[in-house]
């Protein structure tokens, strides 16, 4: 055996069984021999058997099988009955794996009929157009030639065109063209000649008047098979000679590669394809004028079946389920049937066929076979094969039991079950099977889920429908028996689509509105009401009618004649109203049109995704004469096409070249020589298309540069690049998403989009996901892109911090502590502490502190004795902020009654949390406190020495500035009439003198509403000293560092005399000579020290307080309020503050300074005024 042969045999044995050659359609003459090819390959031995019309061929000396498997017929018989060899032939190949059947081969005998159309004699004026036609039916199609005076007509002249359809056209007729014409039809077996027709030529007159264009032979509707040649004839006359042009009614371009013009205007389309189908328009136009006429014809292309989806070979365990899918397209729509080992399969309880699918339940060993899907129509048949291999296993689990279902919604049912009692530990997956309970041959659906659950929600069901469910448990080499079946009903829902409506008029003042029932798929329950809305197109007022759900028409009466009305309809179930249809227009007839043709009864039916059949019937009682019909159609929202002129005898028309999944509005009316009749309007929707997939075309490349970014705790934003293509194409994408390490494949999420980006939502927080993208273009799919991994953000804290505790550790300082929010997955990066006295809380003013997520305690300093404070805390992270805790109240006792070690007093309230024990400080905390106190005392001592030194230097120049300051203060907004008035003002606020101190903390401001440390009260912006170093361990280090540069320029001043109020000023930043300051601070005093002006950027809290997360160092200068207009002052500063020194203080630590504004630069420190008590 040669090496090549051995190699070939080794290659073939890998495939079980397939055809190398299959029989083809053939036409032969009687008594001629014929060979029908059939060659199969696979594991030997292979037996070939021939079938004719489904039965086995009886072989004899005239018909027998050759050694290569082909069928040979020595003499084809054409007699009628059983002796005729005509019919459909198939070969059946069989080996140990099973059997396969070939496609059908149609054997026909060559025939030719008599002439159906003979050429007719005609008289033509010289220079005119002569046309002869003949028609004959033959198999194979006959070749038609022409003779003049019994001799072959020469076709070399441009004036003469002979069409393959049997038409002869002679342009510019001359006297020599006169004669006897006949056509000759020739096939492989016969030859026929028509009768002769005489062409008479009349001499032309010298006067050639203008003549409008007229089409004397227009195109005819043609139905052609794939790859044939089609000719659309168009012959026109006129003076001057008209120009012929072609176009498509759907405005699509005509295929220039497969079309050309024959003669003077005939359109020939060679190698016809499905996309050539449509309405073609011939237009004859007089050059240089607007005089034209048109004629139209529809080209319908018939196509043999072609597979869109092929069945794939499967390996299944015994008692499992096998599902084969097969889809094909063609024109007419192909019929799908299934074969097992070459024999047709019929549905039974275990094997079902529906919607071109084959499902085999509870597989048995006998199901191990070769299965074929056969698609056939009038144009041919094709088959595709797949193998089912059954794996045997005896140790199977028992069936799941206690199966029960619960309705969740109109489209979802929850299914639950118990694990098998026997071998449940070997179960690796469950298979959920469900199908509609009503009707026959309903499609059964299957969902495979993991073994880690015993419940599943089926959420793709139709509303208001009964479904049957059962469960099968799977192990690696087997499956259990089916569980018991359960039936459950889904709830109703609102209609998914409005009815298709039809509008006609019986008189000039009425419109009959009729509609078809909504298909059950879109009805989603029982329709109980219809709502009709109508209005004049020129008015906005809409009239509404509600009709019972059993009605299917309604007559609107009392309308205006010759007016356009807009009508739409809505349907409702017991759940509610669905979406309304778009407005459909209809013009009522004119009042004078009483004798016009009535509206035809119109019916629309989609043939396929791009073709609509329009059928109509004229009222038999209508006595008006009808000359023809006018047909118009348009896609909703697009320009109307038409009119298409139809003969009075036409009762059907096919509209082709439409777009799938679109709604079209069709209107039809009859007309006569007097006027147009009443029109009929109707809408129809085209279905979706199933496109052909070509295995030979390589797949497109996958998307590139896939990028993922977490958007929230439940969403991730994806972006990818579109591959480069040679031309612009419509591209769709599929995104695959699943958590990393997913064990249950049924939980993989697939999403579709036409964009190059998508926000994937509904994800779990703080979970890593993997993503991949593939594209679909021209019915081809790319491979998946490289996988990208990304983690969702953590979820914002869902609860507040817990265990909030407040302890008063000094007269004006409290320590607040807390624990992180409950939940192990909660991530906290920052805490927000809000606290305020009751008085400030009523005014909506909160002071804000922020601490990092690692800290769970904070100091509340400068509290006012005698006040009750409220504290609440919230946790936040990069995603957002959680809720605030319940407010905790604590009291700061007055100094007269408070002792250093006294137990803090706490007040109970509905939202408060109280504690009865002290806050215990550890050794480290006490060490830090002692060190902090020492540092503070050192700072105080240094400040006192500096102030004493500087006060001596000022004594020589003090009287003049004091007098000057007194004069300036008379022009400011502070009214200091006398020392007594000042003393009264101070006494008025003596009770709350401590309330000012918590507000003046640090060198930056506290804004109770803005969230910063800025206090905006009646004194204007107030700064606070930072020389206090107590409790440094609990201070915010970032804040301390930010404040250090400011303290370099702020010179501390303390001029204290008992019973004296001192106003101080200081420049924190130098001003250049002559520089004008735009910021002026007029002085004013108010009794309420907790009042603050509104600041921008405030946020509402749950108890009407306001806080902001703005920077603590930001100073809202615009918040300073003046009671009187500002005046010029010799004291200027960049950052200004106001304060009144209390006479009760016996020491000073970086005392807060009172600044005034001016437009001229001053020395770093000046004394404004001194008011004696």
Automatic annotation (TrEMBL):
Gene Ontology annotations of biological process type: cell-cell adhesion; negative regulation of neurogenesis
Polar residues bias: start-end ranges: 1119-1132, 1157-1173
Domain Fibronectin type-III, chain residue ranges per copy: 399-493, 495-591, 596-695, 702-795, 800-895
Residue numbers spanned by region Disordered: 1089-1173
Record's keyword annotation contains Metal-binding: no
A GO cellular component entry from the record: plasma membrane
One Pfam match: I-set
Lineage top rank: taxon: Eukaryota
GO molecular function: identical protein binding; signaling receptor activity
Main location: membrane
Protein name stated in the entry: Protogenin
């Amino acid at each position: 055996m040669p090496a090549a042969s051995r190699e070939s045999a080794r290659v073939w044995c890998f495939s079980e069984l397939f055809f190398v050659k299959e029989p083809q359609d053939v036409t032969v003459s009687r008594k001629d021999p014929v060979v029908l090819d059939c060659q199969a390959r696979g594991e030997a031995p292979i037996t070939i058997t021939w079938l004719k019309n489904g039965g086995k061929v009886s072989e004899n000396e005239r018909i027998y099988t050759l050694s290569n498997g082909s069928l040979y017929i020595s003499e084809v018989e054409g007699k009628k009955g059983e002796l005729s060899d005509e019919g459909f032939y198939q070969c059946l190949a069989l080996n140990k794996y099973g059997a396969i059947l070939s496609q059908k081969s149609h054997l026909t005998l060559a025939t030719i009929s008599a002439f159906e159309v003979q050429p007719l004699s005609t008289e033509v004026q010289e220079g005119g157009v002569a046309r002869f036609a003949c028609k004959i039916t033959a198999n194979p199609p006959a070749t038609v030639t022409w003779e003049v005076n019994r001799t072959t007509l020469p076709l070399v002249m441009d004036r003469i065109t002979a069409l393959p359809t049997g038409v002869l056209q002679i342009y510019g007729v001359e006297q020599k063209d006169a004669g006897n014409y006949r056509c000759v039809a020739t096939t492989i077996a016969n030859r026929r000649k028509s009768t002769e027709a005489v062409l008479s030529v009349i001499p032309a007159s010298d006067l050639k008047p203008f003549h409008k264009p007229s089409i004397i032979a227009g195109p005819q509707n043609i139905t052609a098979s794939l790859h044939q040649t089609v000719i659309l004839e168009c012959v026109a006359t006129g003076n001057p000679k008209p120009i012929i042009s072609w176009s498509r009614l759907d405005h699509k371009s005509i295929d220039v590669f497969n079309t050309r013009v024959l003669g003077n205007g005939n359109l020939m389309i060679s190698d016809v394809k499905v996309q050539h189908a449509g309405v073609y328009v011939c237009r004859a136009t007089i050059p240089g004028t607007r005089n034209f006429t048109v004629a139209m014809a529809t080209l319908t292309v018939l196509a043999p079946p072609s597979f869109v989806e092929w069945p794939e070979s499967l390996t299944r365990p015994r008692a499992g389920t096998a599902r084969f899918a097969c889809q094909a397209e063609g024109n007419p729509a192909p019929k799908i049937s299934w074969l097992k080992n070459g024999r047709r399969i019929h549905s039974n309880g275990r094997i079902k066929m529906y919607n071109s699918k084959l499902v085999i339940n509870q597989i048995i060993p006998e199901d191990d076979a070769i299965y074929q899907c056969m698609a056939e129509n009038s144009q041919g048949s094709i088959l595709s094969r797949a193998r089912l291999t059954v794996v045997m296993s005896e140790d199977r689990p028992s069936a799941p039991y206690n199966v029960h279902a619960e309705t969740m919604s109109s489209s979802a049912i929850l299914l639950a079950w118990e694990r098998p009692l026997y071998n449940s530990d070997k179960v690796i997956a469950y298979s959920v099977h469900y199908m509609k309970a009503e009707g026959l041959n309903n499609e059964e659906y299957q969902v495979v889920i993991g073994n880690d659950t015993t419940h599943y929600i089926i959420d793709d069901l139709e509303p208001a429908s009964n479904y049957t469910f059962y469960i099968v448990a799977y192990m690696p080499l087997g499956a259990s028996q089916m569980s018991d079946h359960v039936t459950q009903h889904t709830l109703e829902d609102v209609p998914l689509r409005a009815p298709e409506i039809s509008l006609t008029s019986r008189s000039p003042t009425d419109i009959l509105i009729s509609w078809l029932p909504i298909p059950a798929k879109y009805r989603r329950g029982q329709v109980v009401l219809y709502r009709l809305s109508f209005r004049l197109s020129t008015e906005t007022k809409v009239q509404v009618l509600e009709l019972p759900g059993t009605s299917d028409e309604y007559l609107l009466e009392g309308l205006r004649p010759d007016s356009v009305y807009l009508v739409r309809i809505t349907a409702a179930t017991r759940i509610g109203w669905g979406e309304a249809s778009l407005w459909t227009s209809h013009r009522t007839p004119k009042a004078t049109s009483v004798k016009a043709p009535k509206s035809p009864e119109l019916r629309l039916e989609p043939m396929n995704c791009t073709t609509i059949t329009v059928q109509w019937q004229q009222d038999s009682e209508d006595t008006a004469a009808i000359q023809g019909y006018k047909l118009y159609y348009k896609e909703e929202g697009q320009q109307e096409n038409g009119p298409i002129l139809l003969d009075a005898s036409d009762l059907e028309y096919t509209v082709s070249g439409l777009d799938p999944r679109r709604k079209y509005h069709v209107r039809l009316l009859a007309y006569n020589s007097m006027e147009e009749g009443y029109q009929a309007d109707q809408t129809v929707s085209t279905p979706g298309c199933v496109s052909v997939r070509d295995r030979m075309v390589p797949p497109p490349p996958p998307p590139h540069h896939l990028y993922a970014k977490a958007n929230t705790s439940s969403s991730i934003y994806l972006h990818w690049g579109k591959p480069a293509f040679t031309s612009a194409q419509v591209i769709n994408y599929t995104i695959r998403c699943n958590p990393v390490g997913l064990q249950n494949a049924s939980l993989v999420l697939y999403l579709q989009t036409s964009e190059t980006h998508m926000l994937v939502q509904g994800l779990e927080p703080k979970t890593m996901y993997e993503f991949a993208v593939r594209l679909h273009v021209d019915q081809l799919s790319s491979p998946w892109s490289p996988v990208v991994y990304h983690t969702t953000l953590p979820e914002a804290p869902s609860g507040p911090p817990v265990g909030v505790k407040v302890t008063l550790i000094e007269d004006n300082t409290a320590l607040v502590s807390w624990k992180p929010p409950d939940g192990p997955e909660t991530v906290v990066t920052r805490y927000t502490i809000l606290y305020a006295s009751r008085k400030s809380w009523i005014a909506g003013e909160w002071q804000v502190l922020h601490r990092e997520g690692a800290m769970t305690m904070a100091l509340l300093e400068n509290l006012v004795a005698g006040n009750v404070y409220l504290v609440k805390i919230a946790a936040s992270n990069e995603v957002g902020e959680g809720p605030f805790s319940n407010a905790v109240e604590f009291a700061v006792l007055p100094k007269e009654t408070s002792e250093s070690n006294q137990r803090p007093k706490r007040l109970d309230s509905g939202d408060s949390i109280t504690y009865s024990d002290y806050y215990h400080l550890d050794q480290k905390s006490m060490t830090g406190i002692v060190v902090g106190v020492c540092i503070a005392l050192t700072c105080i001592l240094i400040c006192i020495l500096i102030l004493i030194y500087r006060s001596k230097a000022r004594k020589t120049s003090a009287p003049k500035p004091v007098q000057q300051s007194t004069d300036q203060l008379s022009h400011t907004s502070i009214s200091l009439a006398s020392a007594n008035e000042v003393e009264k003002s101070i006494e008025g606020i003596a009770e709350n003198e401590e309330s000012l101190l918590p507000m003046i903390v640090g060198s930056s401001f506290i804004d109770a509403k803005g969230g910063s440390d800025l206090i905006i009260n009646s004194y204007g912006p107030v700064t606070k000293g930072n020389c206090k170093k107590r409790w440094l361990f609990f201070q915010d280090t970032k804040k301390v560092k930010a404040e250090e540069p400011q303290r370099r320029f702020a010179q501390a001043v303390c001029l204290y005399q008992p019973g004296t109020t001192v106003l101080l000023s200081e420049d924190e930043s130098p001003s250049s000579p002559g520089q004008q300051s735009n910021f002026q601070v007029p002085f004013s005093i108010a009794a309420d020290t907790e009042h603050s002006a509104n600041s921008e950027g405030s946020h509402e809290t749950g108890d009407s307080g306001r806080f902001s997360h703005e920077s603590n160092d930001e100073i809202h200068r615009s918040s300073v309020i003046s009671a009187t207009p500002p005046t010029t002052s010799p004291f200027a500063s960049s950052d200004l503050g106001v304060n009144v020194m209390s006479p009760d203080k016996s020491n000073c630590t970086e005392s807060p300074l009172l600044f005034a504004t001016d437009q001229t630069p001053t020395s770093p420190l000046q004394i404004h005024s001194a008011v004696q008590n």
